[in-house]
Give the backbone structure.
Amino acid sequence: MECFHRYIRRDHIAPRVFVRRATAEICIVSAALPQMRVGYIDGGNDAVAHRLDRIGVAVTDLSDVPLSDVTLTACDTLVVGNLAMKFHAGLAGAMPRIHD
């Protein structure tokens, strides 16, 4: 049995350690996905492209690629990370074409 320890240290009380059993809930999913080409623009520190790849989705990283009409039409789906606007200059200007 693994345990989770939490140490509490404050000036006004003696140090304390709280111990509780560590648990993890695991769910196994069988996913049947259509063949598609997904373009991904990362949002900083995330692992979305990696996770899509792990379930069998063909992912092309478009984070450092100019978003021309040719690039966009090469993808069936475009996934944009939640902080991508902060990290990729020009992405906001490309959003009307992306939405089209």
